[in-house]
Amino acid sequence: MTDLPTTTDKKLGLVIDLDTCVGCHACVISCKGWNTENYGAPLSDQRPYGEEPMGTFLNRVHSYEVKAEGQAAQTVHFPKSCLHCENAPCVTVCPTGASYKRKEDGIVLVNEQSCIGCGLCAWACPYGARELDQEEGVMKKCTLCVDRIYNENLPEEDRQPACVRTCPAGARHFGDFADPESNVSILTAERGGMDLMPELDTAPVNKYLPPRLKDSFDDESILAPFLDPVAEETQGFMGWLDKQLSRLPGDTKTQSEDV
Ligand code: SF4
Ligand code: SF4
Ligand code: SF4
């Protein structure tokens, strides 16, 4: 229904380090703040101080306890937002052209003027990365802070996504994956950055750096057993994470409850 560009000049995206993320939610709050006050319709809340509070978020952090055989349990915090996929099913399913991927930098956006709130794109996204704003009736998703990164009214150090600028642990990195010399390309190569659910062929631009075992000083064992390299089928920690993700309800109302 809506075409994707065959290629993009840049591939802007995030590297998220699951080894250093401490689950503080600062990225969630700064994202909500910036994207409520700036680009597009505000991100609404429903009953924020009442029963069953709900709200629209572009970035959420899910926390899990992971235990491998013979190892102590450890907590892994998993920040989740749009991965700006190269083969984005959320774009091709859109009946109005409201969802689109930019040729110049690869950012996936929603034109709120032509969005009819049908929800097809949220259904098509396998990562649960889109949320229909209950008040505005339009689809919301991470914009990579497109109104910050090119904003010449901001000091240069602030021309980064709000989540990256805010993260106190330095767990979030922004850059161009099309450039093999960029910070994100180098981090991904050096630390074994991974795609989420690679078997779906969505070709996510964002990459995750896997967590190391916390109670091991042995370099050999640091990557085992969670970090089997992703092959044809997702295995190890990322496979387990994929399963947890697939259990997340597609219903955006329910997603809103687990911030
Ligand atoms: S993560 Fe979901 S919303 Fe983002 S581009 Fe991929 S399919 Fe679309
Ligand atoms: S909710 Fe909006 S962006 Fe999503 S498929 Fe429908 S019209 Fe397109
Ligand atoms: S701000 Fe950084 S450390 Fe805190 S939850 Fe987000 S990614 Fe993790």
Topology of helices and strands:
Elements: E1 12-17, H1 26-37, E2 45-46, E3 54-55, E4 60-66, E5 74-80, H2 89-92, E6 99-101, E7 108-110, H3 120-124, E8 131-132, E9 139-140, H4 146-149, H5 162-166, E10 172-176, H6 183-191, E11 207-209, H7 219-222, H8 236-247, H9 252-255
Parallel strand pairs: 1-11
Antiparallel strand pairs: 1-10, 2-3, 4-5, 6-7, 8-9
The structure holds iron/sulfur cluster (3 copies).
GO molecular function: 4 iron, 4 sulfur cluster binding; metal ion binding
Domain 4Fe-4S ferredoxin-type: 12-42, 73-104, 106-135
Pfam families: Fer4_11, Fer4_4
Kindly describe this structure.
Residues 12-42, 73-104, 106-135 form the 4Fe-4S ferredoxin-type domain. Keywords: 4Fe-4S, Iron, Iron-sulfur, Metal-binding. InterPro entries: 4Fe4S_Fe-S-bd, 4Fe4S_Fe_S_CS, ET_IronSulfur_Cluster-Binding. This is Tetrathionate reductase electron transport protein. It holds the Pfam family Fer4_11. Helices cover 23% and strands 16% of the residues. The relative contact order is 0.22. The protein is an alpha+beta fold and 259 residues long. A hairpin with a 6-residue loop joins β8 (131-132) and β9. The chain has a single domain (12-253), classed as 2-Layer Sandwich (Alpha-Beta Plaits), CATH 3.30.70.20. The two termini are 32 Å apart. The chain is globular and about 55 Å long. The strands form 5 sheets. Strands 10-1-11 form a 3-stranded mixed sheet. A two-stranded antiparallel ribbon has the order 2-3. Residues 219-224, 226-231 and 250-259 have low confidence and may be disordered. The protein has 9 helices and 11 strands. It has helices at residues 26-37, 89-92, 120-124, 146-149, 162-166, 183-191, 219-222, 236-247, 252-255, and strands at 12-17, 45-46, 54-55, 60-66, 74-80, 99-101, 108-110, 131-132, 139-140, 172-176, 207-209. It binds iron/sulfur cluster (SF4) (3 copies). One iron/sulfur cluster (SF4) binds at residues 93-94, 96, 98-99, 110, 115-121, 139.
